[in-house]
Amino acid sequence: MSQLQQHRLESYGWDSAFQQSFQEHQQEGVVPGRVVSEKRGGLTVLCREGEFPARIAGRLRHHADDRSQLAAVGDWVALRLHQPMGRIEAVLPRRSQFIRKSAGRRSEGQVVGANIDTVFLVSALNEDFNLRRLERYLVLAWESGADPIVLLNKSDLCPEPQRFVAESEEVAMGVPVYLLSALEGQGLEPLQQYLEHGRTVALLGSSGVGKSTLVNALAGAALQATAEIRQEDGRGRHTTTHRQLLLLPRGGLLLDTPGMRELQLWDSREGLNETFEDILELARECRFRDCAHDQEPGCAVRQSLRRGEIDVQRLESYRRLLREQRYQATRQDESLKLKEKQRVKKLHKKYRKIIAHRRKR
User: Fold this and answer.
1) Burial degree of 351 (CB within 10 A; 0-12, 13-18, 19+)
2) Residue pair 34/75 in contact by the 8 Å Cβ criterion
3) What is the C-alpha separation between 65 and 56, in angstroms, rounded?
4) What residues are paired with 45 via a beta bridge?
5) CB atoms within 10 A of CB 108
6) Average pLDDT value over all residues in the chain
7) How confident is the model at residue 354 (pLDDT cuts 50, 70, 90)?
8) pLDDT tens, 300-337?
């Protein structure tokens, strides 16, 4: 690999650790590449030879337990170059993955972005600002393995922005909170420290919070389309329709994602513990280890609630997210049992065919 080609991959986050992971595929006639776009199920992979549309190999699909194990934007993959479309033969081990429950009734995870270093959790200071939604994003960000950063955008539209900063800092539990106006170009300079050469930042937030405007402001160019929010309720329209990894002129990569108003938890136990560390610290003083913080005697959490030390809405948010996480864990166990049952059934069917064939002989 030439120095120019190597530099190109390094700009997208390639390093010695990923190179080490790729060693086992070195003799298979494949090349390393990073998934830089996902649009309507189609993937684009950047490698030293250029950018190529790619599909996931049937063998990889067959061995995956669910879609969360398939290639997603941000993944480093082993790509077999074919015309007119490359084939992804393997996904290299991820350093982080932002995963949510797939839409619909199926119980499986969906990777929103992989190998992310920092997550910008973007909220807008308008009628749609919601602390409970911010808590949900924090849970999933902590669970991903990336570092969360809270961005309060559209400060130019808010008469009392510092009030929202204080409220966000209370639920963010030590996570940095930045006030900015992407449209006016205000408050952007502190964000450059997270956009170093080869580092990947994901932007997550609901429609209309200004993610596309922020991408354009950080890039210094109109890379993404933008749209005005609806005046009747302050909510935005979808302008980003697919996931895309963008290389910025000053270094660093931005992963822009479509707005996600409903973001269901997947496997989020550690994320809950990080986000609600204050409640868990109090819970250690409860009389009963399995205290639900409802009617049990000797509940330290409810005592703190009566003293006004924690907010009742924050406690209810914790309970709701905890119930959701437990429900999803149960669904995942049931799904695994069903898949194992189907696997055994297929083996028995294949075995009966072999026996029947031998008897005919």
Assistant:
1) exposed
2) yes
3) 15
4) 35, 52
5) 17
6) 82
7) low
8) 988 888 888 888 888 888 888 888 877 766 765 555 44
